[in-house]
Amino acid sequence: MFADISQTREEIRQRMFMPDASPQKWKEYQRRYSWAPFISSENKAFRLFRTQSEYYNGETEIMLRPWGVRPPVKERAVPKEMSFFWETGKGEAFEGRAFFSWEKVNQQFAKAGKDFKLDFKIAPDNNSMQIMINNQPVEVDSTRIYKSEFKFKESYQ
């Protein structure tokens, strides 16, 4: 099975060894803050169905309707990526994504205080979003919104 490997252990060690490796980054990723994601829109037909958060510490959290509509504030790590699914009418299903930088968002979370909301305000036309903490814009790497094919039990018929 391993007879086809054409590298020696020493060659692998030289190529993959990281002499300055430190667990510090992973220890920092374990930091938690007391917060909740809150996703809203001024569009009166807005229905949020699913929220999925992937955190820098490796955890994943999925909240479905009705829990994701008003999630509790609790200890959570810093988000790496958040995805959410909503509809504003029949044939108007969307998926939004936000990608976060550890350095930028961790700094903002540290300054936010206790029990804050990470607000995602989706534009009424579903084409853009603002992300805020305590009414201050959150710096993100990127955001994306696109049409979705997902259907949910409470989808518009």
What's the short version?
The protein is an alpha+beta fold and 157 residues long. The protein is built from 3 helices and 10 strands.
Describe this structure in words.
The chain is of the alpha+beta class and 157 residues long. The chain is 15% helix and 39% strand. The chain has a 5-stranded mixed beta sheet with strand order 4-1-7-8-9. The protein is globular, with a radius of gyration of 20 Å. The relative contact order is 0.20.
**Terminal Cα separation, in Å?**
55 Å
Biggest β-sheet description: 5 strands, mixed
Averaging pLDDT over every residue, what do you get? 93
Point out poorly predicted stretches: none
- Helical residues, percent: 10-25%
Output the helix-strand order.
Answer: HHEEEEEEHEEEE
Count the helices. How many? 3
Strand order of the largest sheet: 4-1-7-8-9
Query: Count of DSSP E strands?
Result: 10
What is the topology?
Blueprint: H1 9-16, H2 24-29, E1 33-41, E2 47-55, E3 60-64, E4 74-76, E5 79-87, E6 93-99, H3 102-111, E7 116-122, E8 129-133, E9 136-137, E10 142-147
Parallel strand pairs: 1-7
Antiparallel strand pairs: 1-4, 2-3, 2-5, 5-6, 6-10, 7-8, 8-9
Keywords, please?
about 160 residues, five-stranded mixed beta sheet, about 40% strand, alpha+beta, globular, 10 strands
